[in-house]
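re: ur question from yesterday

yeah so i grabbed the chain u mentioned. its 362 aa long if i counted rite. heres the sequnce exactly as i have it in my notes:
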Amino acid sequence: MNAKVNCGALSSAVRLVSRGVANNSTIPIMGHICMNIDSERGIIEFVGGDTEIEIRSIVPCQVDESVKVTVPSKKISDFSGSWNQESTINIKIESNDTKFQCQRSRVSFAGYDYEDYPFFRNEEMHFLTKISAQELRENLQKVAWGVAVGDTRVFLNGVLFAVDDGILSLVASNGSMLVGIGIEVETDQSVSAVISGRSVKIINEFLASADAVEILKSPNSLCFKTALSVLYLKLMDVSYYDYKKVIFDDSDFKVKCKSTEFASVLNRSCLFVDKKLYPSCKFELIDDVISIRTVDENQKSSNECLDVKVKSKGTIASKYNPKYLLNIAKHSGDELSIELSDKARGMKIVSDNYYAIVAPMN
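ran it thru and got these C-alpha cells back, copy pasting raw so excuse formatting
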C-alpha cells in the first residue's frame, strides 16, 4: 500500500491522538497509535488512547489501498514534528511494517496487529448539546485549577460536569475551597458526571484549535466531537457531593472591587508568604478597606490595603490561603463581589456566572 499525506496535517493529528496514549503501560500495544487508511474515503484515521480515553482524528490523503496498522506513538510523533510541515510524506505499508519518507528522511516502524488494539468500548451515544469550543475550554480552565490531586475522597479528583434546565455547570473542589461556573446551553437533556483531572487537561488540549464542539453522552461516557476529531471519555465511577449546601446566601458583609486590583494586592502577598509553610494571610475588612497581612519565615510582615465599595460598614477578620484567592481573582470578570460571614462559613466570591467558596484557615 502506498499513500501520500501533508506533513503538517499528519503531525497535528498524531500529536493530538498521542495525548490519549497511556504512559509506561505494561501492555506494549497501548504505546502505539492506530492508522486506519481508507481508500474509498481518501482518509487516514488516527486512533490513540487507553482504557479511559480514546481520541480519533482524520487526515485527507491520496491512497491506493485500504489497510490498518499500528505505529509507536512517541516515535512517529517525534519524527513527524521534526519534518518540514509543508512537505509531503510518502507512506508505504507491507504487513505490519510501515515506512515513512519525507524528502531525504526515511524511517521504518514495526507495528502490532490492528485487531489486537483494545479500542474504547463506548456505548450508544446520544446528542446532548453543541457549544463554542473556545467557550467550553476557557470555562474549564477557570475551574480545573481547583481539582484535588490524590485525595482519598475520589470525587474531588475530578470536575463535575452537569447539565440541567439548559445550564452547564462545571464545579471543582479540593475540600478547602470550591469554584464553579454556569454556562447557558441549548438542550432539553440532563446529565451529571465526574471527569477526571487528567481527562480535563486532555479536553483543553483537544479543543485548542476547534471552533465548535458537539457533546454526546451515554450512561458511562462522554463524547466531544469537532469537525475532524472525536474524543471519548470514560466517566469516573463516583457521585459528586451536594456542593450547593456550602454556598451560603446570608452573609454579614458584602463588598465590591475590581478583579485586577484585588489580584494585584494578592500577588504581592503571595510573593512575601512563607513558602516553607502552608501559605496563609490575614484577611481583614475594616469599614471600606480590605487589609491583607502576610508573614515570612523571619516573622517579618507585609501589609496590603485595597479600597472597596461596601453596603454596610463594619469589621471582620479571618485567615485564608492567598493563592486560592489569587487564582479566583485571575479567573474572574472585571468586577467581583466578596461576601463574608462571621459564622465560620468563609468567603464567597461571585463574578458574573463564576463563583467560589473559600474556607477559613485555623
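noticed a couple things. The chain has three domains: 2-116, 126-244, 248-358. also The chain is about 20% helix and 45% strand.
anyway ttyl
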